[in-house]
Structures are given as C-alpha cells and as structure tokens.
Amino acid sequence: MVTALIMAGGKGTRMKSALEKPLIPIRGRPMIEYVIWALQGAEKIDDIVAATTKHTPKTEEFLKTNDIRVIRTPGTDYIVDLQYIITKLKSNSVLLTIAADLPLIKSSTLDYVVERYESCGKSALCVAAHPEIFTRYNLKPSIELEGIIPSGLNILRSINSEQDEEILLVNELELALNINSPEDIIFLEKHLNDSG
C-alpha cells in the first residue's frame, strides 16, 4: 500500500503573495488541486494525506473540504515535519512525498515512479530532475545538492531512520518546475498557453 503525502506547510515567502502558496491560482484553480487530481488518478496510490502547519491554515481548510486527511506538523522544517508525520502513520509503510507546488505532475508519472521504486530494491527513492531540462527551458533550479536537483517527489518507508536510497533522474518539465517565485508562475502560464 502506497500513501501519498502532500507537503503543504511552507511559508512560501519567495512568492511575495498574500495567499498561501498551495492556494495560488493556476488557471483559476488552487495549485495544490492539480497535485491532488494527479494523485487521485494514479493507480499505484492507495491513500492521500497532507501535511500542513500554522503557516497554511486556509490550505488545511481547503484540504479538509475536499476530504483529504490532514496532519498538522510543527512547521519547523521539512525534515522535522517529515519525522513528525512518520510517527503518525503506520510503521514501515511506503510513503510517497510530494510538494504541493508541482502543478504539472501527471498520474502516469506518479505510477512510473512507484513502479521504479518497487523494482529498485532499496527502501527509498529520490526523484531528481535532469539538469538538461533546466537548460532546455532556461530555468534555474531552486536547490542543488551535490549535483542532484531534487524534484519534490520522493518515496521512503515510514520509519524514523536513515534509509538506503536510489536516485531516479527524470527529464520531464513536470518534475523540474516547482512553483517558488512569481517568475515561475509567469513561466508556467506561458507554457500552458503555448502547449494548449
């Protein structure tokens, strides 16, 4: 059984918006809704949970209205919040974590990632965006760790310890475009208009 965990508790200060980041509209719909739709359409996802913090009370309300189970975390940082969530879930279950700011994510990609996880033989899988995609679209990665560009999508076991990790490089815009700034929104809107 795979539980998807939407990470939706960040402050989103780089967005310079009065709205909570997961609720920023993309074509009239809250950004997080696109992530929810992709998760609901994925055959390999059995359950959806969202992590919120004191920084995202309206997002929490939106999620509850849409029948998504919510776990409110301390809001300290990503790792601390993830460790907190793990204590609230069934031990050693498969947990797919996804950032709320990946509005281009597709159900088919989520299924592909879970299939790769199931066949890799390791307890964790980090999905990284291929550097070439950033060059192709003239994008700048939000973060790069030792040459790896995290996509905001990972799979791990719900155990509170370090896990042996496989790196999966994916050369798709949907995993490279995390919405972290007003410029990212402008790029996304132009991309959506250009691609119809």
Q: Trace the largest sheet across and list its strands.
A: 5-4-1-6-8-7-9
Oligomeric composition of the shown chains: single chain
Number of strands: 9
Integer average pLDDT: 91
Low-confidence stretches: none
- Per CATH, the superfamily is Spore Coat Polysaccharide Biosynthesis Protein SpsA, Chain A
Described by the principal axes of the CA atoms, the overall outline is globular
| Individual helix count | 7
The proportion of strand residues reads: 15-25%
Q: Tell me which CATH architecture applies here.
A: Alpha-Beta Complex
Return the domain count.
1
Instruction: Name the CATH class.
Output: Alpha Beta
The sequence of SSEs as H and E is EEEHEHEHEHEHEEHH
Give the C-alpha Rg. 16 Å
Properties at a glance:
36% helix; 196 residues; alpha/beta; two-stranded antiparallel ribbon; globular; single chain; Spore Coat Polysaccharide Biosynthesis Protein SpsA, Chain A
General description of the model:
The protein is an alpha/beta fold and 196 residues long. 36% of the residues lie in helices and 23% in strands. The protein has helices at 31-41, 57-65, 78-88, 107-120, 131-137, 173-176, 182-195; strands at 2-7, 25-26, 29-30, 47-52, 69-72, 94-99, 124-129, 150-157, 165-170. The strands form two sheets. The protein has a seven-stranded mixed sheet with strand order 5-4-1-6-8-7-9, sandwiched between helices. Strands 2-3 form a two-stranded antiparallel ribbon. The longest helix has 14 residues, at 107-120. The protein is globular, with a radius of gyration of 16 Å. The mean pLDDT is 91.
